[in-house]
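Quick one - inputs below.
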Amino acid sequence: MTDATATHGPDGLLLASDGTPLKTKLRQSMKASRRRAFGLVLPLLLFVLASFVIPIIMLLWTGVSNDTYASNMPRSAPLLRAWDGASQPTEEMAEAMVLDLIDARKAKTIGKVASRVNREQSGTRSLYTKSARRAAKMEAPFIDALVKADKDWADPETWRATKIAATSLTPAYYAAALDYKYTADGEFVEQSEERQIHVKLFWKTIWVSGAVMLFCLLLGYPVAYLLSHLPAKKANLLMILVLLPFWTSLLVRTTAWIAMLQSQGVLNDIFVWIGITGDEQRFSLIYNLTGTLIAMTHILLPFMILPIYSVMRAIPPSHVRAAKSLGATNWTAFWRVYFPATIPGIGAGGLLVFILSIGYYITPALVGGQDGQLISNFIAYHMQKSLNWSLAAALGGILLAIVLVLYWLYDRIVGIDNMKLG
Amino acid sequence: MTESVTERPFVHFDGVQKSYDGETLVVKNLNLEIAPGEFVTMLGPSGSGKTTCLMMLAGFEAATHGEIYLKGQPINNVPPHKRNIGMVFQNYALFPHMTVAENLAFPLQVRRMRRRDVKDKVARALGMVQMDDFGNRKPAQLSGGQQQRVALARALVFEPELVLMDEPLGALDKQLREHMQYEIKHIHEQLGVTVVYVTHDQSEALTMSDRIAVFDDGVIQQLAPPADLYERPDNAFVAQFIGENNRLPGKVTAIENGVARVALDQGPDVLALAVNCGEVGNRTVLSIRPERVQVNNVTGSNRLDGHVRELIYLGDHIRCRMQVCGRDDFIVKVPNSPEHAMLREGETCTVGWETDDCRALDLAPGAM
Ligand SMILES: Nc1ncnc2c1ncn2[C@@H]1O[C@H](COP(=O)(O)OP(=O)(O)OP(=O)(O)O)[C@@H](O)[C@H]1O
Ligand SMILES: [Mg+2]
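Output:
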């Protein structure tokens, strides 16, 4: 239906009463409201950008680029990068190296440079620091002077390791994060058996997260069901209990876990008392993987219960009644009518718990002991102790990729618009 | 109650009481017999216990006292899924994650029917409600009326002998509602199922039902065919609830052959059928339908003066509000035809009625 006052322009476009095309008019009138909407979200947008998007991009960048060598050894770095890695190191490279070593020693950055090269080939740290000390007195030909200072300089491997370190943009960290070694020839070789730790840890993190998600679902679903079928007053009271873990401080919670779970703890005492186990063979429930599983399930349970609860609340009771009136037993009515309606909640809760636990770090650190450590603890180690930020960034980048892949899979299988967070 | 069911009752409520909180009775001593194939409507104001009765019959609420029989068998301890009762809910309760066809197949699948039979029956049920082409849609992709049809088909597809409907047309607009009323009625006649229908729309009840049970406050006030309910209400509540009704309070001075002489509070003595007015000396309310009031050419034995206060032109008839016996709300419907009196506001006229059209009823609490 067209408005009586609307007319058509020469090109068939609908015109507003002042003669401008209706579409232009509409766009003009939308512009103001769009600008206002943008203004409203702008502060948040800036905040997210500054505190989230930019750091993530910087982190991802750190994972593929490390200019410790290039910025501190400016003369030798370009020469090494240009070197083919197979021929004999030239006198020019040696001279640049010696001059760089002198400068680096003066600037007190030689330690950093030495660690950087050492990561590519162990044992080169002392080579660099020692050579730097003697560099000031070296004279041409510098190749021979270097070899005289330490005969490792005669080994092409030393130069090759340096070449890798001199290349700022490198897949070496991602390779290392996946238990591969990136050689100077640009090849990837598998790490030796005993140094392959990351991939195993990734798998462990994934299955621990899966297990935590499963435990949360098994424990949380009945609770959500109960909550959603209670009168509002009682449900609110119980909801406080569900949310209690959120309100206790981490320290109190950890202390409580220790009191409960340690071998002389409450739980073990009860087991001994009932006779499930002997006094000599108490279960070790904390400072190992079991501790990590128990504690993470405990703290992530509300994230499972809340979305499921809110979905259950919205299911009209008449649906189950209808199913029963149509002849379905209690179980069939639950399984074929009620349960499918709760899937959006399960999906949301499951995804939430899984993604949270895949990056969980404090709880495993506190109660996980040796074998309860997950990939995040490793990332933290590289951030804080070994100061290998690039490897930490690579591990973090892979973790991010895993989460995104899972998210994509979830979207493909369940559909993201099926998710209900509350 | 008033109507005795000659065949063995199909559904029988025997002294059923229901309380949710142990303090108040929502249903008080319900006795109701429903014959096979009958269409019985429970009609009543909100909160009168209609849904509760239906839920007890379907098995979702337990009767606090009394017994419900289905085909002579007590069913208080039969779980809902074994009662084989079809049910249409007010919000349709279609399963949102299943297509229309899957919704209809559900009751057949849980009965472990063979796949081919399921398909046939689903197709036939869809045809019955003229929804043949909608089998693959999800309920969310249907209009309210279409969802209603699907819900109806689903309640009938497993061929139950008894179908319960709780305000199934409540969410539809007036035109669609009237259309669906006829469709449900036709399906009922076609299939011969027994239907217990709940509504608070009296015209819906009058159109569709074989008998209507008027509920108020957990009690059946009257159980009768629509015409009886309208023309011969048992008490003031029913007279008031069904259709329009003029009420004149008075006092019974004599009863003879079922005819009461009533002294009106502000008027002369009149004659009325002694339906529910008790003994001589009791206070009573006379109930006269507006269309039974005669104006000016009164043939009945009762004559009163009326002052025309307001006239409303309604096309086929004229609605006239008069002052009669000191009451300002006396309504008369005058058909819009030449042989009927033309009235003017402020005019005084004579009103009257046949004794048979005026019923002396109880003084219902809160009815005045
Ligand atoms: N589950 C329940 N718990 C407690 N009281 C209830 C419950 N269901 C209904 N009631 C009460 O019982 C009374 C009758 O309710 P019912 O639903 O049977 O009324 P109704 O006649 O169907 O009314 P409507 O026309 O509004 O649907 C009401 O006073 C209501 O508050
Ligand atoms: Mg109701």
